[in-house]
Specification:
With 106 residues, the protein is an all-alpha fold. The protein is 73% helix and 0% strand. It has helices at residues 2-19, 24-31, 35-42, 50-60, 64-68, 75-79, 83-104. Helix 2 (24-31) crosses helix 3. The longest helix is centred in the last third of the chain and has 22 residues, at 83-104. The radius of gyration is 17 Å and the shape is elongated. The chain starts with a helix and ends with a helix. The relative contact order is 0.10.
Length: 106
């Protein structure tokens, strides 16, 4: 499980950086490490310290649980929705939960 979480973390860090259009240098500057540390995090050669894990979560606007693979989706995406978008996502989630519970009872 630890190996999976470490690999998952490195993949998520790289995906988050690329998806948001950041260079390793930009992330490194925010975190307070050199660029090679970010590269090592993303290639699973090194683990970020607890303090740097917090900074990475803050930088990307996700939770530490999301980075570690405990949560499947970054909570902040849903929490930052407002108006009809939030209502729509809630309605879809309720509909999915209803259908899943129907399947479970068959």
């Amino acid at each position: 499980r630890d190996e999976y979480m470490n690999t998952n973390l490195s993949v998520k860090l790289r995906e988050l950086r690329l998806t948001n259009g950041y260079k390793q240098k930009e992330v490194a500057r925010y975190i307070g490490v050199n660029e090679s540390a970010i590269s090592a995090y993303e290639t699973n050669l090194r683990k970020p310290t607890y303090e740097n894990l917090i900074k990475l979560a803050e930088f990307y606007g996700v939770t530490i649980d999301f980075l570690l693979g405990v949560e499947k989706y970054p909570k902040d995406i849903i929490n930052n929705l407002t108006g009809w978008r939030r209502s729509f996502i809630n309605n879809v989630a309720e509909l999915l939960l209803y259908h899943v519970s129907e399947i479970d009872h068959k």
